[in-house]
Design brief:
562 residues; Rossmann fold; TIM Barrel; 2 domains; four-stranded antiparallel beta sheet; 12 helices; globular
Length: 562
């Protein structure tokens, strides 16, 4: 008891800081003792939960970093600069002096201006496109990538940096990219000074061009000047009557011979205006109403305004193409491909030659009320004749199943007869006698007998079937390979070429390829809505310079196995 009393007295006379340290030490000792007493499985469970939460946070941060790391950008400098100046009025540094900005109509003496543009030196860069996207899930970014992949152009995607590091642009005194594409041009003009200077110096030294898109949203200013450029933008416009400037230097596939009459879809279009001679309009349209641009000053009621402009590089030595919308409109896809070709000196370019084969399956097949009538056959012939004016020797290729001949109504049976009356006006290919899927036949002789019935029908009705081409119903048995189908085709029809949409996968369509099996070439099938730039080849062939050649696909000079 005496000893305990002495200890108590000793602790009582200790200074307060020392008492605090002793208390903290006791707290740590108790905590460590509690941790040691935890069961092992509880500790492991806690660690697993912590790791999962960390991974979820990291995934969210990476996928949303462009939007989280920086506030919504202020893309434009105000045109008016404050005070009472109206939007769309220059403050004096836009290359044309003070006053109202005129619409950039067809600028004269283009040849003289083009002579000042530095030629593209394609030998100093790799044939790779650098694409800056908003995120890996953005719609426009995916459309850009889809067109590059469909065109077989090599590319690399990066999340557009705000304040982060720019990817390495050179390696061993050689440029790594021959073209820069920005899904959002605001990310380009709002780069920090270091990255912007780095990118501009690279583009100027290696002759690399830039393509940018601006899609107005609810936060976009109605009228503003593009930061750092003598170019004014007016957003949220409703436009109509689209046309192509025939003097635009970049035109290659796109053909400026007609006006696309009528209103353009949406009211979120952006038009460009500038007095600087470096800007050449590519696509132009009229406003929906005269009041839409009343603040521009007096002018024609249907003045033309540029929605896509080409920067010839006279301002800073860098050539660019700017789009006032996305790629949803079909004409923008053509101009986008032309822009890639022009800015890369035709290094990344699509040929003007096309070898097409348009198949029409299931002739004579169908329930009553859904089959072809005389009027349908006449429409098919009229369409073929119209397309022949654009594509020499254009001919529809009809796939027939003879078992269903004359199995419709009297009106539909007359349609069958009219098809046979004009049989020499079309090409024909066998499509199985009863439209059965070949992979259901495991016996080669039974499958061959079905084909012989179709061949006898063709011979009895004078249908020419010497093309060496066939298509299986639903492309069944072509891939995955059903070997009995290939053997029967060769023995009955002497088939050399077929097609499928299944190799190596059905989706996405641009990844489809061809192959050769048992001496038969298998061509990839693309439906009209799946061919991106070429989806309007037949229905809008008049809008391009592409030269079509209607021949069997296996006679194409480029008909390889892949």
């Amino acid at each position: 008891m005496y000893l305990a009393l002495q200890i108590y007295k000793w602790r009582a006379v200790l200074p307060p800081p020392f008492n605090t340290m002793v208390g903290a030490g006791l707290g740590v000792w108790k905590l460590m003792r509690g941790v040691r007493q935890l069961e092992l499985h509880r500790l492991i469970l806690a660690l697993i939960i912590f790791c999962l939460l960390s991974m979820a946070f990291l995934a969210y941060y990476v996928s949303n970093s462009p939007k989280i790391k920086e506030a919504p950008p202020l893309p434009f400098s105000d045109c008016g600069g404050g005070g009472g100046i109206s939007p769309g009025v220059s403050t004096g540094d836009a290359g044309g002096g003070p006053g109202i900005q005129r619409a950039p109509l067809f600028l004269p003496q283009r040849e003289g201006r083009l002579r000042q543009v530095k030629a593209v030196d394609i030998s100093r860069t790799d044939a790779v496109v650098l694409v800056f996207v908003e995120s890996i899930y953005s719609q426009l970014g995916q459309e850009i990538v889809a067109i590059l992949e469909s065109s077989r152009f090599h590319y690399r995607t990066e999340i557009a940096p705000g304040k982060g590091d720019m990817p390495t642009l050179t390696e061993h005194n050689r440029g790594r990219y021959t073209l820069i594409i920005y899904e959002n041009v605001l990310k380009y003009v709002n780069l920090d000074a270091w990255n912007r200077d780095l990118l501009d110096k690279y583009c100027a030294e290696y002759g690399v061009g830039v393509i940018g898109f601006f899609k107005a949203n609810e936060n976009s200013l109605l009228s503003a000047q593009l930061k750092g450029f003598p170019l004014f933008l007016h957003s949220h416009m409703g436009l109509r009557d689209y046309r192509i400037n025939p003097n635009a230097p970049l035109l290659f596939i796109t053909k400026p011979n007609q006006v696309e009459q009528g209103p353009l879809p949406g009211d979120d279009w952006t038009i460009f205006q500038s007095n600087h001679s470096t800007y050449e309009p590519v696509l132009l349209a009229s406003t929906m109403s005269s009041e839409a641009l009343a603040h521009f000053g007096p002018g024609p009621l249907r003045a033309l305004h540029a929605t896509v402009v080409q920067d010839l590089g006279l301002h800073d030595g860098i050539q660019r193409v700017l789009f006032g919308n996305n790629l949803n409109y079909w004409l923008h896809k053509l101009v986008f491909v032309d822009s890639i070709a022009y800015l890369t000196g035709k290094r990344l370019c699509l040929s003007l030659d096309r070898h097409m084969l348009v198949d029409v399956d299931d002739i004579f097949v169908g329930k009553e009320g859904t089959r072809m009538k005389v009027s349908d056959v006449e429409a098919l012939l009229n369409t073929q004749n119209k397309l022949r004016a654009l594509v020499p020797n254009f001919t529809f290729n009809l796939g027939f199943s003879g078992k269903f001949y004359h199995t419709g109504t009297d009106v539909e049976d007359r349609g069958d007869d009219m098809l046979l009356q004009h049989r020499m006006d079309f090409w024909w290919f066998p499509h199985m006698w009863s439209h059965m899927q070949p992979h259901l036949f495991h016996n080669v002789s039974v499958l061959a007998e079905q084909m012989r019935l179709n061949k006898i029908f063709a011979q009895e009705h004078g249908i020419p079937t010497d093309m060496g081409y066939a298509v299986a119903p639903h492309h069944s048995g072509v891939y995955p390979v059903h070997s009995q189908l290939y053997e029967a085709w060769k023995s009955v029809w002497s088939i050399k070429v077929t097609s499928t949409e299944e190799y190596p996968h059905l989706r996405p369509a641009r990844y489809r390829r061809g192959f050769i099996h048992n001496g038969i070439q298998v061509k990839p099938v693309l439906h009209p809505e799946e061919t991106l730039v070429l989806s309007h080849l037949t229905v809008r062939f008049i809008g391009s310079n592409m030269r079509g050649c209607m021949i069997p696909s296996y006679l194409s000079p480029h008909s390889g196995g892949h």
